[in-house]
């Protein structure tokens, strides 16, 4: 078996992985970035619409908004790291290094100075602090970021390359087993940074791109790393699921004045929260699903704003998907973001030596039970930079890599597809927006059996789809188990029976 070495191995190519690679290169390291994606669209960062929040001149108010949106569960120290580094990180990387053309106050793309940036408003923010590029902010950041790194002599980007397993021994991670085109080999590194993104493939409806199977969390947990807050799965309330290809409708649209109306044509959010359409995401998502069940549908009325001028990218998505937005955009809640993940400190360090996690793979403590809008790109940027800088300088050591068996390489026809369908059905029915203790127990039983079936195949076969299924089943079981062990409804973790009892 051949092997390669690198100073820092980054697994994943979203904004968090890119930021980690950039910081490591700046410190003089050689970086290998392994990504399953074959194009930028394969990363969740590319799909981020709303924007990236900054502290402006009031980090304390930004901190207060983050903690309030989390229902008081965010770690104040972690939030301090985020808000105190927000302005500098965005200025350094996005404005000065990548020269991202954020929308300007006097019109998108104008040559105005950086002081004329247009700051948007989104749900649960008490101030206009969101930098954006139409409704395609992630794409506007991610593409130049990848291009910048790809042009750097010290960065090797391996596309269409999946991490199957971590190479670890006695509490330390030495690298990972990487698969490309059916061939598997170890890559040893002084530090390994997990930045594999979210868990969208665990649910039937998600805003994530294809391939988000919880790989980093599954590998880290299997290696013995600590995970935390896995029960906190955020659902986005406005996803157009009726289009030919479903798409997210940015929270910024509601920030500009769009209204949610039910099947009877009635605006309903003022009945659920004082902030109406700008209430925290978990509140809006549950309200949307309640109204859909009671009245048949929910539409986002964009007539109060100049939708065509302010959100041309969304107009194009509507037209491409066969949606007449003048009648309102039909929306539903869909899985969006995992607030938990691999437990890390303020530098992204996991509980295993020389292992880091950043972005949606990590649980930094910033989000607690519910994430504030437009903080995901910022968290990935800030923790990516801090992790990449900290990861440099560790000795690269090789060791005997784990043997991934391939005695019987052929999987039964449709095996992974059928098992994924079963996993998604269980997560949708039992571990969704609303949960009960009974449903969570049922989910754990099914997921344990599923994991056992997958493990049996892993003993004799090695393939990307099988290991993705393994990571997904481990991650799904961790979510169901954490939800079952938490009796308190907070934020995105909503126990229907507990809520009813509290209301009584």
Automatic annotation (TrEMBL):
PANTHER family reported for this sequence: L-ASPARTATE OXIDASE (PTHR42716), L-ASPARTATE OXIDASE, CHLOROPLASTIC (PTHR42716:SF2)
Residues covered by the FAD-dependent oxidoreductase 2 FAD-binding domain: 7-377
InterPro entries the record matches: FAD-dep_OxRdtase_2_FAD-bd, FAD/NAD-bd_sf, Fum_R/Succ_DH_flav-like_C_sf, Fum_Rdtase/Succ_DH_flav-like_C, NadB, Succ_DH/fumarate_Rdtase_cat_sf
Protein name: L-aspartate oxidase
Cofactor(s) this protein requires: FAD
Organism listed in the record: Halapricum salinum
Highest taxon of the lineage: Archaea
Domain Fumarate reductase/succinate dehydrogenase flavoprotein-like C-terminal span(s) in chain numbering: 422-498
């Amino acid at each position: 078996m051949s092997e390669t070495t690198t100073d820092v191995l980054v697994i994943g190519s979203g904004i968090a992985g890119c930021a980690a690679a950039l910081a490591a290169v700046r410190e003089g390291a050689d970086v290998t970035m392994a990504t399953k994606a074959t194009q930028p669209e394969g990363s969740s960062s590319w799909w981020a619409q709303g924007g990236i929040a900054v502290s402006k001149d009031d980090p304390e108010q930004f901190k207060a908004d983050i903690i309030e949106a989390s229902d008081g569960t965010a770690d104040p120290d972690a939030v301090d790291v985020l808000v105190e580094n927000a302005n500098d990180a965005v200025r350094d990387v996005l404005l000065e290094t990548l020269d991202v053309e954020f929308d300007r106050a006097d019109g998108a793309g104008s040559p105005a100075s950086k002081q004329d940036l247009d700051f948007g408003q989104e749900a649960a923010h008490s101030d206009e602090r969101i930098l954006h590029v139409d409704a395609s902010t992630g794409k506007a950041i991610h593409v130049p970021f990848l291009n910048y790194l790809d042009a750097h002599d010290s960065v090797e980007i391996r596309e269409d390359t999946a991490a199957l397993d971590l190479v670890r021994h006695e509490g330390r991670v030495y690298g990972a087993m990487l698969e490309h085109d059916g061939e598997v080999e170890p890559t040893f590194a002084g530090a390994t940074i997990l930045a594999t993104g979210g868990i969208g493939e665990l649910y039937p409806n998600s805003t994530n791109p294809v391939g988000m199977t919880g790989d980093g969390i599954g590998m880290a947990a299997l290696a013995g790393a600590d995970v935390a807050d896995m029960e906190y799965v955020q659902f986005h309330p406005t996803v157009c699921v009726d289009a030919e290809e479903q798409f997210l409708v940015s929270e910024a649209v509601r920030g500009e004045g769009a209204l949610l109306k039910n099947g009877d044509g009635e605006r309903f959010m003022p009945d659920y929260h004082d902030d109406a359409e700008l209430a925290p995401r978990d509140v809006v998502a549950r309200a949307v699903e309640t109204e859909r069940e009671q009245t048949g549908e929910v539409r986002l009325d964009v007539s109060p704003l100049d939708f065509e001028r302010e959100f041309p990218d969304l107009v194009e998505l509507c037209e491409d998907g066969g949606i007449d937005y003048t009648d309102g955009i039909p929306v539903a809640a869909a899985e969006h973001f995992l607030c938990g993940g691999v437990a890390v400190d303020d530098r992204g360090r996991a509980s295993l030596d020389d292992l880091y996690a950043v972005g949606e793979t990590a649980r930094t403590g910033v989000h607690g039970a519910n994430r504030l809008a437009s903080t995901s790109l910022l968290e990935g940027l800030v923790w990516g930079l801090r992790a990449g800088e900290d990861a440099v300088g560790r000795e690269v050591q090789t060791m005997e890599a784990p043997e991934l068996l391939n005695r019987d390489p052929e999987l039964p026809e449709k095996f992974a597809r059928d098992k994924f369908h079963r996993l998604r059905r269980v997560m949708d029915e039992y571990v969704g927006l609303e949960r009960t203790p009974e449903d969570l127990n049922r989910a754990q039983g099914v997921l344990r059996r599923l994991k056992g079936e997958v493990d049996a195949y892993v003993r004799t076969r090695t393939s990307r789809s099988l290991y993705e299924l393994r990571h997904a089943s481990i991650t799904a079981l961790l979510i169901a188990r954490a939800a079952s062990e938490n009796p308190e409804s907070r934020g995105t973790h909503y126990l229907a029976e507990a809520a009813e009892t509290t209301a009584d």
